[in-house]
Amino acid sequence: MNYSNLILALAVSFVTFIVRSQDRKVPNIVVIFIDDMGYGDITPFGSTTNYTPNLVKMAKEGMKLTSFYVASPVCTPSRASLMTGCYPQRVGLNWGSDHIVLFPGDPHGLNPKEITIAELLKTKNYVTGCFGKWHLGDQPGFLPLDQGFDEFYGIPYSSDMWIGNKNWKFPDLPVMRGNTIEYLVEDMAGQAKLCSRFTEEAISFIKRNKEKPFFCYIPQAFVHAPRMASPEFMANAKTAEEGQIEEIDWNVGQILETLKDLKLDKSTLVLFTSDNGPAGGLSAGPLRGRKASVYEGGHRVPTIAWWPGRIPSESECDELTGTIDLLPTFAGLAKIDLPNDRVIDGKDIWPLLAGRVGAKTPHDRFFYQQKGNLSAVRSGDWKLLTNGELYNLKEDLAESLDVADENPEVVKKLQRMLRDFDIEISSNKREVGIVEGSRTLVPRPGVVGEDAYLPTLVLMKRDKGQ
């Protein structure tokens, strides 16, 4: 017997066991990020229109977060904040190159120098996957595989950026696997399949990586326009919105059941939320405003956190929290130090999610934006808009009564916060990613040569003679 080889084999086995044991001490993390879903669109948050039993069950087994915010009321800036733990102004994505969000072929994107949730978790041996709508840049260097994800299956931008949208000269909508285009969405039947396909890919990822810590990010394309659900959900729905929301609910149920079947539920944190407030045909519930609005309906989103045995069941948290807090919270759970070479705006909210007695929001202020600009601040129950309106959200959640005149000292205090943030962000903002010679991933139908690959916004300007 070769004892040297035996000892080497035993040593390798021991090290592998230790690494895997250490890995299993950190939780799996699943983030389900819905597109354009409003605060009042699901049953746990008051909807009587949409039937969402799986989300009801998720809320009963977990925690509702009723004051959970996105950092922007539109797609790209909101996603940039979730991925980086920063306000979008800080990472240069509060605005695209020439529009509030990124368009096909846009030269702008999330700077590869930014540290995403995926990149941070990979330092702790996490396997990472993104399944759904990316919308943080479609050029080389900006796509998920360049931003810390091991796998990507999805669309590079919004589902309405396709040839079916006659308001713009879009190319076809590509569905990608990694950096390769797998097929094109050609009709509404193809749009209707996106939700289930993203979920199937996410479940496959979870099953293949059940022995490792994983981060599974599922940014669904539903319920962004154009809207159509799978036939079995459209059959009993009065509207496409209802069909899509109920299909989302069913898919959430499939993910949670998969985790239970694999006996991963006790070791997996799942967070369900939306990227901004509701677009047309959807509901903000009791809140004023909608998608793109500075009011609560634009920024406050329906959110449920689930981790059986760790997050208390049938619980509710009304403390101020948001998507900017996910990166530092996940880092804390994974025992990872935050980078010290940059400002991170989010805070670790695990004490709140764990239901610790006396836990409070770590934020003494939170900032809103509209059309890419700083537009409001919330501190405690008070919210001041840059146009001078002041609301007490505890007494007036619907923001129906401007009380600025009755509270001049509060106005002054919050105005200072707005000024301080403006100054601080100007001094500590980082550069957006920019590439030269950007082009669309696929050509516009019926156009030949390089013109077929012109970025959508460049084409628009040329058509307008700009």
From TrEMBL:
Domain of life: Bacteria
EC assignment: 3.1.6.-
The entry's keywords: Calcium, Hydrolase, Metal-binding
Gene3D superfamilies (UniProt xref): 3.30.1120.10, Alkaline Phosphatase, subunit A
Signal peptide stretch: none
TM region positions: none
A GO molecular-function descriptor: arylsulfatase activity
The Sulfatase N-terminal domain, residue ranges: 27-335
Enzyme class: hydrolase
Protein family: Belongs to the sulfatase family.
Protein's recorded name: Sulfatase, family S1-14
Organism of provenance: Zobellia galactanivorans (strain DSM 12802 / CCUG 47099 / CIP 106680 / NCIMB 13871 / Dsij)
Upper classification of the organism: Bacteria, Pseudomonadati, Bacteroidota, Flavobacteriia, Flavobacteriales
